[in-house]
Amino acid sequence: MARKRPHQGRRRRGSGKAPLRQRQVLTGTLRITRPGVGSVETPEGTFELARHGMREGMNGDEVQVTLVDAHGIGKLAYVQLVLQRAVTTFAGRYGMAGPLGVVTPLDGRLGHDFFVVPEDHSAETLGVSEGDVVVARIAAYPTRNSAAVVTIERRLGTSDELDVNVEAVIASYGLATEFTPAALEQAETIVADAGGALSSDSARRDLRGLLAVTIDPADARDFDDAVSASRLDDGGFELWVHIADVTHYVGWDTPIDNEAKQRTCSVYLVDRVLPMLPERLCNDVCSLKPGEDRLTVTVRMTLAADGRLVSSEMMTSAIRSSARLTYDQVDAVLEGTAGADSLPCRNDANAAVAESLRVLDEIRALREQVRHDRGAIDFQTVEAKVMLDPDGKPTGVSVRRRTRATGLIEEAMILANECVAHLLATTNVETAYRVHEQPSPDDLRQTVQPLRELGLLEGATVARLVAGEPAALQDVLEAARGGSGEYLANALLLRAQKRAVYLPRNSGHYALGAKAYCHFTSPIRRYPDDLVHRALKAHLAGKDTSAAAIAVARRLPQLCHASSSMERTADAASRASQDVKMAELYSTKVGSSYPGIVTGCERFGLFVRLDDTCAEGLLPVRALGDRWLSFDDARMTLSDESSGVTWRLGQRVVVEVAGVDVPRGRIEFRLPEAQPTE
């Protein structure tokens, strides 16, 4: 009897059932919140993972997913294929399982155990014992049919020797902690030698007799910008901005430059800085230390009496800083709580420096108005930094807000960046421009109802806001200033913004209201600034079409993309390290109560931000009492229909610390007692 041929899956017309509808297939980024739980971020939206839907995916991976309808929940995602892996190394604890070594990740979001095969002797070679914390490199990723395999790259130490949670952040984000021997060897050969550079380059201006000061946070170790300002006879101003000339010492495609290309930026963690450049450069040779001759790239700007830019000039230069000032010292002088004699200036320059600071402050106020008038949007942000003792234990929180001192430096740097970008853009020079596109109407539309709930949006302003008119955003932020909704209004509108990126072409900067913009002022800690320096110096020297300039331009798309991506990674790692220490701080405060404000509302609970430290945590629905709560997605509220109690954005609450998860940097709250809604 002949075998039947396999069915080919075709049906004749009218043969019965209709074919099954094909499932929707999307590509996105996998975000794991805890083992087995997470979501997939796609251009079409964010979708929760189905149970067991993660499969062999890991946090941060680019994945292909299918969406299925789940009754009463919406669409859920199943990972079908991993397109690109995000994690190559991670920190974990080493143990044994029979003949196999096992590395259990410190970051539980990785969701797998990783094995060291018997023929791999890396643990023995490195002197690793059970319980040690190690960095493992993934040799084979998990599949549906095989386990994940790693090799041990280095031993970090015992749990008692390390701040394991911060080490987990470093490894989870794949941050570089050591420089290559070649880069370190090159760094040791570099000397400042400002005098030699001046004598060998006739185009470099000797500005060592010009007043200049650095102004930075008290804990800053690298000083890459210096400023000064004076009044002109016509009522205008002269503003000088000097930036460390990193590219004079770091040639293109040298070991240090190649290392910087890989890192693209310094990473500022809660307890340390992972610098882009070797310490010899960032903290010594290139740092604009007071009283020492240093090479710089300078922008000289002439301003009218109303703060408008009249002219600008760029040059390579050498300076000698008169003082290293902190923001607190400058604010004290500007506020009148300290005199000029309190400033740590050299060569009796106190009076001249104090006068320069007052002029810089006057320029700040004028430039803020100029930028406002042209449509710039100034978001009021607050930086909370956990303070640590010498042993790395949290002792408190420093909350930094924008002050006159931070503002005058910010305005000077923005203007210098604009001047450089304008010159390069108008002369069609390719470089790493900083581009910020207008937010989409859909993203802005999502802010409308919450802003209405806060009483900050009404009438015709809605249409203008959704259209992205800068004046409409300014009006909302101004209405919120000083009120209970100030933080939320800034957060909502900031969240609706597109992320600024680096591109090899100029497309303007929406939030700054600038037709052309670039990053020029921080070459010690940002690689795009080095690219801009190379382009500017080539242009000033008339070498736009040189082989060296062409070589840099050829790599621009790749370098801009890498810098934009790494910037996001560095920001995320910085926040994660702060969250870990914030959770550690509040681990000693379980049961204590604090006032705060509701900053987010989801089906699963309320996000609350504490007033004194800006710490944010979750108040889960189970902590809101024995209630049936209804969630209004449009209004972003949780309501108890039986009692009429509604929880909403901007609501003042008092919460009690219920518990913390230090490795994940999470704080959970509960209500100390029933609290009525406002």
Strand segment tally: 31
**Strands across the major sheet, in which order?**
3-2-1-4-5
Structural class: alpha+beta
Put simply, the count of helices is 16
Give the overall average pLDDT.
Answer: 91
- How many domains is the backbone divided into? 5
Strand content: 25-35%
**Assembly status:** single chain
Distance between the termini: 83 Å
Low-confidence stretches: 1-21
Radius of gyration: 28 Å
Instruction: Give the % helix.
Output: 25-40%
From the spread of the alpha carbons, the general shape counts as globular
**Main sheet overview:** 5 strands, antiparallel
Key structural traits:
alpha+beta; disordered N terminus; single chain; five-stranded mixed β-barrel; five-stranded antiparallel sheet; globular; OB fold (Dihydrolipoamide Acetyltransferase, E2P); 678 residues; 29% helix
Structure commentary:
The structure is a single chain. This protein has 678 residues and is of the alpha+beta class. It folds into 5 domains: 24-84, OB fold (Dihydrolipoamide Acetyltransferase, E2P), CATH 2.40.50; 89-172, OB fold (Dihydrolipoamide Acetyltransferase, E2P), CATH 2.40.50.700; 181-435 and 503-578, no CATH class; 441-497, no CATH class; 587-670, OB fold (Dihydrolipoamide Acetyltransferase, E2P), CATH 2.40.50. The chain contains 16 helices and 31 strands. The strands form 9 sheets. A 5-stranded antiparallel β-sheet has the order 3-2-1-4-5, with no helix packed on it. A hairpin with a 4-residue loop joins strand 27 (629-632) and strand 28 (637-640). The radius of gyration is 28 Å and the shape is globular. It starts with 23 loop residues before the first strand and ends in an 8-residue tail after the last strand. Mean pLDDT is 91; it is low at 1-21.
